[in-house]
Amino acid sequence: MTEKEKMMAGLKYKSGDDELMKDKASARVVCAKYNDSPEDTSIRAKLLSELFGKVGKDPLIKPPFRCDYGYNIFVGDNVFVNFDCIFLDAGKIVIGNNCQFGPKTMIFAVTHPIDPNERAEGFNLPYDVMIGDNVWVGGGAIIMPGVRVGANAVIGAGSVVTKDVPAGCVVAGNPARVIKSC
To answer: pLDDT band at residue 41, thresholds of 50, 70 and 90?
Structure first.
């Protein structure tokens, strides 16, 4: 398997691989064009469809926006992403319909091995992040690798989400914990 095939299969892979580095460079070019584009929805929609694996109708992503590959990001309808968000998408990032993300939100669908020798060799581990419909993520929140956020959940500003969030619950803090039951 190539390193990209390993990454796409959810296996440990080397991120410095030539093919993956080219993919990252391509994504950065599209992100730069997007971030420098005028607020013309047709231009931005075209760039997002070029960058993302799937784009629903009427996305609104405020620049600057950054990601690793783009092709592992799948966005539903009516998604709003505020300024300065970063989505690291070695694993899939799947966002449902009618979701809102505050400024400086970060979603990490990748991590490094605990073993220092594996880290030194350049290995990464992809873990998918799934976000249900109608989720609101407050500004500065961080969603960690492998997290599932249920529909209608709310994540408080500045929270670090390390575990799954049940549908309809409000979580906040570092680490995020349920502060309002479903």
So the answer is: confident
Q: How many Cα atoms are found within 13 Å in the side-chain-facing hemisphere of 129?
A: 26
Containing domain of residue 42, as a range?
Answer: 3-180
Catalytic residue status for 53: no
The 123-126 sheet, strands edge to edge: 13-14, 123-126, 110-111
14, 24, 112, 177: which one is catalytic? Answer: 112
pTM of the model: 0.96
For residue 117, what are its two tokens? 């020798």
Domain at 30, CATH number: 2.160.10.10
Instruction: Give the long-range contacts of residues 139-142, CB within 8 A, separation 24 or more.
Output: 139/82, 139/102, 139/103, 139/104, 139/105, 140/102, 140/103, 140/104, 140/105, 141/102, 141/105, 141/106, 141/176, 142/105, 142/106, 142/107, 142/108
